[in-house]
Amino acid sequence: MTIPTVLVLNGPNLNLLGVREPGIYGHTTLADIEDMCTASAAEAALTVRCVQSNHEGGLIDAVHEARETTVGAIINAGAYTHTSLALHDALKSYDHPIIEVHLSNPHARESFRHHSYLSPVAAAVIAGAGAKGYVHAMEILAEELSTPTT
Ligand code: DQA
């Protein structure tokens, strides 16, 4: 039996977590977060595919690739959250639950961070919980996936 896979997708500058503005984003590295996601997924009998890209097209390619190979996605698109209609469109063709995550709370920050192109296609949004937000996202996703749709 194959274990269902969750896409954990991180966008631009998130490869610098741990050193980038730690007062806002914390000291946890992306590798730490990916390990946390792997452990949390395993508790729900899921596995993860972790992808990080600094490029809009790289994120879109990862979503397309995941359409047939994953059962859900946890996405922190970084600044593309606020700008990318193209990523929004790609996610509209992703027919599985999506949880949007932000380490910080964009609504408590500059006004240009208040709009999200991802939220309209997300089943849930977790913001401001730091790295633990990814674990909460995995728990919510696991619950979504175990809930019958009819
Ligand atoms: C972020 C918030 C975005 O506004 C910002 O551009 C990021 C990170 C977060 O995780 O808090 O790169 O998505």
Helix percentage range: 25-40%
How many domains? The number is 1
- Gyration radius (Cα, Å) is 14 Å
Q: What is the arithmetic mean of pLDDT?
A: 96
How many beta-strand elements?
5
Treating each run of at least 4 consecutive H or I residues as one helix, how many helices? 5
| Main β sheet profile | 5 strands, parallel
Low-confidence stretches: none
Short description:
The chain is α/β, with parallel strands linked by helices and 150 residues long. It is built from five helices and five strands; from the N terminus they run E-H-H-E-H-E-H-E-E-H.
Structure description:
The chain is an alpha/beta fold. It has one domain (5-146): Rossmann fold (3-Layer(aba) Sandwich). The chain has helices at 22-25, 30-43, 56-66, 85-92, 132-146; strands spanning 5-10, 47-52, 72-76, 98-102, 124-127. It has a 5-stranded parallel beta sheet with strand order 2-1-3-4-5, sandwiched between helices. The protein is globular and about 45 Å long. The structure holds 1,3,4-trihydroxy-5-OXO-cyclohexanecarboxylic acid. 1,3,4-trihydroxy-5-OXO-cyclohexanecarboxylic acid is lined by residues 13, 76, 78-79, 81, 102-104, 106, 113.
Quickly list its features.
alpha/beta, Rossmann fold, 5-stranded parallel sheet, 150 residues, 5 helices, 35% helix, binds 1,3,4-trihydroxy-5-OXO-cyclohexanecarboxylic acid
